Amino acid sequence: MVTKQIKLHKPDDVKEFVDVAGKCDFDIDIYYNRIIVDAKSFLGILSLDLSKTLSVSYDGVNDEFEVILDKFIAKE
Fold it and tell me: What are the tens digits of pLDDT across the range 18-44?
């Protein structure tokens, strides 16, 4: 299981992230504190606080997904 920290700043970022995540054939969870949602759910991600750093957990390999994660990686 791989976990990365990302930051989605606006709804367009969420749409781009969900579009790529939806092409993956493995489960992807995104969470903040104790709230966990399916990372392939646009409304689920929008229900999270986008001003916070979110954690993404997944167990699979997809090059396009790795590129999008690198784009939205949280910079501390």
Answer: 999 999 999 999 999 999 999 999 999
Question: Over the stretch 39-72, which tens digit does the pLDDT of each residue have?
Answer: 999 999 999 999 999 999 999 999 999 999 999 9
* Domain assignment of residue 66, yes or no: yes
Distance, CA of 21 to CA of 75 (rounded, Å): 21
Q: Around Cβ 13, how many Cβ atoms within 10 Å?
A: 17
CATH code for position 17: 3.30.1340.10
pTM listed for this prediction: 0.91
65 found inside a domain? yes
Considering the domain boundaries, does residue 41 fall inside one?
yes
Which residues neighbour 30 within 8 Å (Cβ) at sequence distance 6 or greater? 6, 36, 37, 38, 39, 44, 45, 48, 54, 55, 56, 57
47 lies in which domain range?
2-71
